Amino acid sequence: xKKVIRNILIGVAAFFAIIVLFGxxxxxxxxxxxxxxxxxxxxxxxxxxxxxxxxxxxxxxxxVPKAKQIYDLSASxxxxxxxxxxxxxxxxxxxxxxxxxxxxxxxxxTTTAQGRIDVIVYNALKTTISSMTQEELIASxxxxxxxxxxxxxxxxxxxxxxxxxxxxxxxxxxxxxxxxVDVIVIxxxxxxxxxxxxxxxxxxxxxxxxxxxxxxxxxxxxxxxxMVTERNNIAAAYKAQGESEAQMIKNTTDAEVAVTIANAEAxxxxxxxxxxxxxxxxxxxxxxxxxxxDFYSFSLQLDALKESVTKGNTTIVLDSDSPIAxxxxxxx
Length: 332
Prior knowledge:
single chain, Tetrahydropterin Synthase, Chain A, alpha+beta, 9 helices, 4-stranded antiparallel β-sheet
């Protein structure tokens, strides 16, 4: 009987020993910190992976994420330095750098940490955007970009775009010299503004990215209308220039046509004059002989008589001295 009781006690002791053994072990993973507390006070933090031991029933272990996290901020309105309202929607990449400080100040709560980040980044956005003009803000980038552009490419499209390119004394086109354009890196300015404000909470904001940069809805229509008006003005200027050039081409063509017609008429008159001269030369040969002249005159009269008769006119009035009248009178 005593032996059975002893075995039972040994079994119970072994069971409790196993529970105590497993209760005194904990594991730290690669992507997390572990924080050991004793009576609510932090006694140890671990940032490397491995198996560790704690005092069972007295010490407790909590985890804090080590990996980078993304927090999406709500869209908000900001005023630029030139008093323009812009809608800014951004997100933040952050991580815990000091698990002990993060736990003691924020109770290791990611939700509480995001609340602190929201306030810090919101103030940084307001401060940064208020120091920039709307044009600078729209042209800003999330990383440094070196841009080379001509003056014409940098300026807004206007009527000057239609002007002919500059030429040198020999008439060769002169290309505009390229120049560097400074682009503001918005993320760097935001990080500079945030500075070390998150250090007190044991965390770090590694980057701030702008997702959306837009105008308020009430301003969009006015901006779009202004853009349409500007483009219509540019189109009207191009159309006016095209019509002017078309009129110049038409005037030039009309002048060329008039000159061509005048030359053709002059050539025609010259040819007609030559024909008349040839005609008079032939007539002069005919009229040099009296018999030929009389015969020619008589032939013309016969042709005239034939023409009058063929037109249905049966009445002919002739002078008594006419050669044709003499024919009818048999006295020719």
